[in-house]
């Protein structure tokens, strides 16, 4: 059986999708499973051990100009995929376009999310994501049309190289795709002040995010480390910081799930986020703090949550 997995979404979504190839390979050891992703998530896909080949493309409908590709390049990608003669495609993205192009190149079995346009191009419809249903339960549903049942769906990545730091460290990720979901920097800085007594603090993020942090709060961060510097601004090297961390604290975003996928203890800040859907579902040591607004978050509860996970 030849299967094409499609996730043209963000980092966290790719982490979730890692379940599918693992379960397919366990049920059908001789199957071939390929993955089509966005260019910037390719690094994450390389950490899914059960993937045979990786293809990358920029979706032409993306709103972010950095993610947006051309229609012609997208068509060329699917024309190139046609020669692989897939039996099944699983489109975990919400867009109907990958489903349409999959049928166009002759893939007979198309599995995807229930949606008005998407339904036209699917042979097997899966119930859409819900804020009340754990995301990994929803991901496992994509396997039902293949007669694969998953009892305890979890995501897991494999990092072949992990960063060895001199001493114990905690990673802080104070960023998220939407600024309105982020705790105030005063909270993060106060948390870091307390954690430094026993741990090295490493701030995790993109160079753009971390440059802003360094410029605005240089006097309070002198003894800290930064993921872009430690990794020489290489995303894979930055990810390699996660497995050996004593704790990861971050918002409801992709890096939280990356850390959890390596079984790193994680404390998720959902402000509000989707605590019933995207709570950490990789490792077994985790907790979340949920509030309707970031202004409700207190330094004391973050430190209390961190303390419980560090015991």
From TrEMBL:
Top-level taxonomic group: Bacteria
Annotated Gene Ontology cellular component terms: cytosol
Gene Ontology biological process terms, A to Z: lipopolysaccharide core region biosynthetic process
Keyword annotations: Glycosyltransferase, Transferase
The UniProt record lists the keyword Glycosyltransferase: yes
Coiled coil feature spans: none
One protein family per Pfam: Glyco_transf_9
One GO molecular-function entry: ADP-heptose-lipopolysaccharide heptosyltransferase activity
Name the UniProt record assigns to this protein: Putative glycosyltransferase
Organism: Vibrio ezurae NBRC 102218
């Amino acid at each position: 059986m030849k299967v094409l997995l499609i996730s043209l979404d963000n980092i966290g979504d790719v982490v979730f999708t890692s379940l599918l190839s693992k379960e397919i390979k366990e049920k059908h050891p001789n199957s071939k499973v390929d993955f089509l992703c966005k260019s910037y998530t390719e690094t994450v896909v390389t950490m899914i051990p059960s993937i045979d080949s990786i293809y990358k493309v920029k979706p032409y409908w993306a709103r972010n100009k950095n993610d947006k590709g051309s229609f012609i390049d997208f068509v060329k990608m699917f024309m190139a995929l046609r020669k692989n003669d897939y039996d099944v495609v699983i489109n975990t993205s919400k867009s109907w376009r990958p489903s349409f192009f999959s049928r166009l190149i002759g893939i007979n079995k198309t599995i995807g999310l229930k949606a008005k346009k998407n339904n036209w191009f699917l042979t097997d419809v899966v119930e859409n994501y819900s804020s009340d249903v754990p995301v990994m339960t929803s991901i496992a549903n994509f396997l039902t049309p293949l007669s694969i049942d998953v009892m305890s769906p979890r995501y897991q990545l494999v990092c072949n190289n992990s960063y060895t730091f001199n001493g114990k460290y905690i990673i802080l990720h104070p960023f998220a795709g939407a600024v309105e979901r982020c705790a105030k920097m005063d909270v993060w800085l106060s948390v870091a002040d307390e954690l430094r007594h026993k741990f090295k603090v490493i701030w995790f993020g993109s160079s753009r995010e971390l440059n802003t942090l360094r410029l605005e709060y240089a006097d309070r961060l002198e003894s800290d480390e930064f993921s872009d510097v430690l990794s020489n601004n290489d995303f894979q090297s930055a990810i390699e910081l996660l497995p050996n961390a004593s704790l990861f604290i971050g918002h409801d975003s992709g890096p939280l799930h990356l850390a959890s996928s390596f079984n790193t203890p994680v404390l998720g800040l959902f402000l509000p986020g989707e605590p019933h859907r995207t709570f950490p579902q990789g490792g077994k040591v985790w907790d979340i703090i949920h509030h309707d607004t970031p202004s409700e978050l207190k330094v004391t509860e973050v430190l209390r949550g961190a303390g419980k996970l560090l015991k």
